[in-house]
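Q: What would this chain look like folded?
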Amino acid sequence: MTITLAPQLLDDLDRTIDGQTVRNRSHAIEVLLRRSLRPSVASAVVLAGGSGFEEAPALRSVGGRPLIARMLSHLIDHGIDNFLVLAGGHQSEVRALLGNGESLGASIRYLRENQPCGTAGALRLARPFLGDGTFMVIHGDVLTDINLSEFIEFHRAEGAQATMAVKPRQAEREYGQVMLQGNRITEFFESSGEAGISIINTGVYLFEPSVFEMIGADGAVMLERDVFPELARAGELSAFFFQGIWYDISSRENYERAQARWKEKGESSR
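A: My prediction, written as structure tokens:
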């Protein structure tokens, strides 16, 4: 398809995508069209601390690019460009890499925990910056090519307070697992001792602001231990199944597997 645009419109297009990762004007038009046609979620909280690791998993290179930069580009391609990053003791390294997000065409702010407050406690810190809309939470040690636009559309259709991206995996006991009735999660287990095929929590979530009512005002609070089980009991936690790449690269073994799988897929290092 060939289209003709006025010179002024082309200039506006160039200014809009200046500094962002696009291949050419055709790709820029495609990106902008996709953003305009998608259900809108603008903000994401990135949990990138990697507590207990000398090197933050989010800073490990995948296909020649730090995981967190690759992940943020993926979110930006799906219209999410306002980020709150909690990087714990690795904040200075992450900030040095990403800055304020201008080079990615995004806005990045950093939040610091004065003391460990858990994954839900991190959201408590982020609340003043998130407004009244739906927001995403993603763990910084996750490599995935999940279609975030489909994820957002599914969440809107479900009408639940929260939606968790889940994936069938073989005997992965260390990850949170779920039991389902239709698309709703009826029980959430922080971990399981059972073998066999499991439906696991991938660390990618969508939340409505009402979820803050389930997070205590102080102290350490965990999504996995305190919030998700309560949401499941209330029938307010949906499950979005997806196929494709997903790895938690916090372990050296999984990191090596992820590298090999990404290379096999033939992803560019954009």
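The chain has a mean pLDDT of 83.
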